Amino acid sequence: MKRRDFIQNTALTSTFLGLGGLSFSSFKTVDTKHLTVLHTNDVHSYIDPFPPTHPKNPNMGGVARRAALIETIRKESSNVLLLDAGDIFQGTPYFNYYGGELEFKLMSMMKYDLATIGNHDFDNGIEGLYTQLPNASFEFVNANYDFKNTIMNGHVKPYKIIHKDGIKVGIFGIGVELEGLVDKKNYKETVYHDPVSISQDMARILKHEEKCDLVICLSHIGYQYKNDADKISDIKLATLTKDIDLIIGGHTHTFLDKPTVLKNADGKDVLVNQVGCYGVNLGRIDFYFDNDIAKTSLGKSIIV
């Protein structure tokens, strides 16, 4: 595939996993290729739906409903990526009892393509995370955690390139600083590196050396910290770097009904999205790739 500019069209940025049906309008032009990016973050072992009496999310969420929605979207869009931005573990007795086995097996059944690592994924220690890796059919990416002196060495890649119908997608991961947030004995000799410089290096490699058509950052550093202006966040990362097209975030449990659009260090648009927590929402962003022109169209959230 020749280098293509892309048309970012957010047909669905966040889907509430409630009751009801779902239909999507299609966008088709000659010589246009379509890629659908689906994503979750901070699911925190929530496998069952919320009960009908729940004050905030009655009858919402649940793996079965999410899986059905993903399957529906895959039937309507031939090129789908399914990603997770971390904190898969910790939050319900399923994790306390099974240690993450059930979460990874269910994600594998839903055919996740890739995930990054959140701070709560260390809650059973780095050994606990390592023990569950055989239950995941998908891979993990993180570029700013150095695992070379740990049991996870070689099991986490800085980035992965995925080809979809001639579209070359480069995806890298970054994580939050673990010191002061996670007990040292849980992450042991894992070394944290500055996510800004690492992200810029990863984006440069993917965009210019690997010639990727789309560069995605799977981030678990948080959307924004209004009370701590100096703390790195997805918002700051987007403006301080270049060559990243989309940041899919986690950690702060921020629900966005549509992506935030910011200007990067080169003055070009970069999308930032995050869809809350507990599996209540499924993010969807549709990209349309064209050889000649680039347009941007933002849609809205669809309630199921």
The coarse silhouette is: globular
Helix-strand category: alpha/beta
- Provide a count of the helices: 7
> Could you describe the largest sheet, including whether it forms a barrel?
9 strands, mixed
Using only C-alpha atoms, the radius of gyration works out to 18 Å
What would you note in describing this structure?
- By secondary structure, the protein is an alpha/beta fold.
- Helix content is 21%, strand content 26%.
- The protein has helices spanning 63-76, 93-98, 101-109, 125-132, 184-187, 195-209, 234-240; strands at residues 5-10, 15-16, 33-40, 80-84, 114-115, 139-140, 145-146, 159-164, 167-175, 191-192, 214-220, 246-248, 260-263, 269-273, 281-290, 296-298, 302-303.
- Strands 1, 2, 3, 4, 5, 6, 15, 16 and 17 form a nine-stranded mixed β-sheet that branches. Strands 8-9-11-12-14-13 form a six-stranded mixed β-sheet, with helices on one face. Strands 7-10 form a two-stranded antiparallel ribbon.
- The longest helix is centred in the middle third of the chain and has 15 residues, at 195-209.
- The chain is globular.
- The model is unreliable at 1-13, 19-29 and 292-304 (pLDDT under 50).
